[in-house]
Structures are given as C-alpha cells and as structure tokens.
Write a structure and sequence with these properties.
Keywords: Cytoplasm. The chain is an alpha+beta fold. It is built from 15 helices and 11 strands. It is globular, with a radius of gyration of 37 Å.
Length: about 525
C-alpha cells in the first residue's frame, strides 16, 4: 500500500543526536544593537529562553539591561554570559536535541515544519485506506524532531484507540528500499509477550509509518515521573517534580523481561539499540518494548551522544546492554544518571542492583567493554526471577533478509566506530590545546626558556675560552710575540673645538696585536 508521494532526492540525512556547539567570537554594534553570532541579538536569546521555560529547567540567561548596555565592559561581560548560556543548553541531553535549540543554531537545516509535513503524508495514507480516522495529534510527546504522533481509531472499532507514528528515515538506514519494505511487513507477524505488537507498518523512499495500540497509562518513564502521557516530552522529563523509583521486585521482574527481549532479538540477528524508559509500556505487570523498527529505519539511538564517547561500546548488542544500564538506574533511583561513567551510587536496600549497575556504567566497564545479556541473566538480581507466559515466541526472518540485516548492522557499527574515533581525536587535541594554554604550562615554558638561554650563554663562553687558548698555543708554537698597543679615542660627546686653556681628556683602549718573529735557531 503506497501512502507517500516521492519527494525530491539528494537531501542530506542529518544525525539529530549530534549536539551542536556555538562559540561567540565577537560582537558588534549594528543599528544601536549589540549583535553576537553575527545575526543574533539579545532579543533572540530571550525569545529562545522563553520557549525553553516549559522545560522547568533553571536556565542561566544573563538579565536584560536598559541603561549602559553599550559600555565596553558590559558588552564583554554579556558576551561571556551568553556563552555560558549556550554551553548549558547544548550540553543538556534533552534540550540539545529539541528543535527550538537546533533551529536557533542551525536555521538552514531545522526550519521545516515537520508537523505539517507529517499531516500531509498521513492524509495521503488515510485516502488510500479510509478505515482510519485521526482523533487528535499528539504534539511533541516524543524527543525526535522528525517523528510525529497521532491518536487514531479504526472506524470499524471506534472505541479502540491506536497511535500512528510517522518519521523520516535516518542516517543509519543501510537496507535497500526493497529489503526495508519486506522487513517492515514482517513486524505485524512478530509475537513476543514482551514486545508491543505492531498493527501496521509501511515505508516509502524517504519515510515510514507505523501503527500500534495506544496505552492510556503511558510509558514506564511516565510511571516513574508521575506525568500524563499526552504532555510534551520536554515538559514531562526535563525537570520532573515528582519522581519515584520502582520497588525491588518490580525492578527484578521488569529487568528480567527486558533482558529476555534483548536476548530474543540478538538470537534472531535483529538489531535494536533503542532501549530506554520512554520505549517501554506496562500492561498487567508486564513490560512491552516499543519501536523495534527504529534500527531498520536508520534512526540514531537516544543515548548516542553518550555512546560515541566510549570506543568499547561499538556493537548493537553492547549498545543494548549500555542502554539497559541507564534504564536500570532510572528504575532504581527514579531519574537518569547525571553523567556517565558512574562510580558512586546512592544507597539501596539490595546491593545486587548496584553490582549490575557497576558492571555497565562504571569507568572500568565503559573502558573495557559491556557484559553480555547472557551474563546479566546469570546475575543474582535476575537469575531466579520466574516468568510466566503462554504466548509462543515467533519471528520468522527469511535467510536473504537475515543476511541483509547482518550487512546493515555492520554498516551501522562502522559509522559508529568512525564517529567514536573522530571524537577521541578531537578530545586529545582539545586536551593538548588546553594544557598548552594553561598558566602552569606557560610558567613551565618560561622557566625552561630561561634555563636554555643560560645554558647557551655558558656554552658560548666556553667556546670562546677554548678558542682563545687554542690561539695562544698556536702563537707560542709559531714564535708569535704579542705586543700591546694603546689606541686613543676621544670621549663620547667630545668637542673638536675645546675652550681655550681647557685640556681635552681621552680614553685609552688597549688593542692586542701579534707580531711574528722567526723562532730561535
């Protein structure tokens, strides 16, 4: 079933998880306004800040100033303050990926109205299959800029609500269009008690559409943060006011169920890489994983900004384990870790939780590599958890498609490894530049330069002394006799016409000449 018209080819596939950075290099006066970043006025920063206030995060925007705002010292101080503001929002995991920040820093690539584009494409789908009807758009409930959600219903079952997601294909899309279409059509046939079933899935050349049941209670993260599922992602999760970790038995049960899903997908050779608390729903005390199609569509992982910092996390399987570490931390403490690696953990009643977290999120784990899913299933935290399900596991992938998935998986991993290598080189260069420009290093170089200067002067004196001694020895061997002459020079400022009766004074300068005489005999 075709639902999308062919769009213009040749577009650039951007990785929206790559955080943009900005450096204010100068400011200038333009029509009585101080302009930073060439085209950005303070009012632009103020408008961005007003839009981001919905996040509930305390943002360090420097305050307005009406008088004296053209003073040179104030402009320098304001420039530093705006740089701190930019650094803060571009380093915040959620704010850095929102379209407001992306558009502010890169207007050319992020000015499109993706909601309008999605509506157009979904309308085409509804014309091709009129049994579906839009109930309402679910505005900004996800974190992806190019993914939009709509609450829909089947006219034949009007009381049943489903959610339709539309998304652009991403930079990791390495399946051919034919293989992608074939694999997506397999998804409704997948049966696993811990995977949310797909009602319908289809793709075009540049985008995809998926329909699945809508969960009124929301996702696992909604449960942890105690928020309503239809609210905007940034409002719900940037700075939640009420958070609560799960009970130990819930952590063990949900954790075991999720690990079973990962093992199932890994055994099938199906790449996932998109595990996080917003991609899990809870039904009757059972976890169900969402968005297993994301890797097929080439979408980058939610945790990719973290993953690219660690070269040992370089396969889709290790990405799943690393993501599980983040999820386990969030289930335990009610919030994601402030930074990774994590070597200090708040106290919990069961030390086996911390043991698993350390095996995934500690500095050593991030440097040496992730444990496998099989190893995690054998830990005391999950090994004795009993699961009861009668549903048969089924996901038949033809051999040809399995080979295509394997090739696509290798291409995804190669792109990740190249980005990790680039990031490591950049970090080394940054550290070297920072060290070279530090005050301590400058002092060290000055001391070293003075030592070298003194050593050089000492060596020159020694050379001159040796040369003089050599000359003296040669003179004696040849019978050269030194004769001292005195040359007379007028003093500095000497007047050639002295006052009558005044005796001029002179300075005498000894000059050494060598006179040669034949040796005796």
């Amino acid at each position: 079933m075709a639902f999308l018209e062919k769009q213009s080819p040749g577009r650039v596939l951007l990785d929206d998880t790559v955080a943009l950075t900005a450096l204010i290099e100068a400011s200038q006066n333009l029509h009585s306004h101080t302009v930073s970043l060439v085209i950005k006025r303070y009012s632009d920063f103020d408008m961005l800040n007003s839009s981001l206030l919905v996040s509930g995060v305390s943002l360090p925007l420097p305050p307005k100033k009406l008088l004296g705002n053209m003073d040179r010292e104030f402009i320098a101080e304001r420039q530093r303050g705006l740089q701190v503001y930019l650094d803060f929002i571009t380093q915040h995991h959620i704010l850095a990926t929102c379209q407001l920040v992306k558009k502010f820093l890169d207007t050319n690539n992020y000015s499109a109205n993706y909601t309008e584009i999605a509506l157009q494409q979904v309308s085409m789908f509804f014309r091709s299959d009129p049994k579906w009807e839009v109930v309402e758009p679910l505005k900004d409930i996800g974190w992806r800029i190019r993914k939009k959600y709509f609450l829909i219903k089947n006219k034949e079952q009007p009381k049943e609500r489903q959610v339709l997601s539309w998304v652009d294909l991403g930079p990791d899309k390495f399946l051919s269009d034919k293989d992608l279409q074939s694999t997506m059509k397999l998804l409704p046939s997948l049966t696993n008690p811990y995977i949310c079933p797909v009602t319908f899935a289809n793709t075009s050349e540049l985008s995809a559409l998926v329909i699945r049941m809508f969960n009124e209670k929301g996702t696992l993260r909604d449960l942890i943060c105690k928020v309503k599922p239809k609210e905007a992602f940034m409002r719900k999760y940037c700075n939640p006011k009420k958070i609560q970790g799960l009970e130990l038995q819930q952590i063990r049960t949900y954790g075991r169920q999720i690990l079973e899903v990962l093992k199932f997908l890994h055994d099938k050779g199906f790449p996932y890489g998109h595990l996080h608390a917003s991609n899990i729903v809870i039904e009757d005390n059972t976890c169900k994983v969402l968005d297993i199609e994301n890797s097929l569509l080439g979408l980058p992982s939610y945790y990719r900004p973290y993953i690219t910092q660690f070269r040992k996390i370089n396969t889709t399987e290790s990405i799943d384990v690393y993501s599980f570490g983040h999820l386990l931390y969030e289930m335990t403490y009610g919030r994601p870790p402030d930074a990774v690696p994590v070597d200090q953990y708040p106290a919990v009643t069961n030390t086996s939780v911390v043991s698993v977290l350390q095996s995934i999120l500690s500095t050593d784990a991030c440097k040496t590599g992730m444990p496998t899913v099989a190893q995690l299933l054998q830990t005391p935290l999950f090994s004795d958890v009993l699961l009861f399900h009668s549903e048969k596991l089924q996901f038949k992938i033809p051999t040809k498609l399995r080979d295509a998935l394997k090739t696509a998986k290798e291409c995804m991993e190669k792109r990740l490894q190249e980005e990790q290598k680039t990031n490591q080189q950049h970090r080394r260069l940054t550290r070297a530049q920072s060290h070279h420009g530090s005050e301590e290093e400058k002092r060290r170089r000055k001391i070293l330069a003075r030592k070298k200067s003194r050593q050089s002067a000492y060596e020159n004196e020694e050379d001159l002394s040796v040369k003089y001694n050599n000359n003296s020895g040669m003179s004696s061997a040849l019978g050269l006799t030194p004769t001292l002459f005195l040359k007379c020079y007028p003093p500095v400022g000497f007047n050639a016409n002295p006052v009558p009766g005044e005796i001029p004074s002179y300075r005498l300068t000894p000059t050494l000449f060598l006179e040669s005489y034949p040796p005796i005999g």
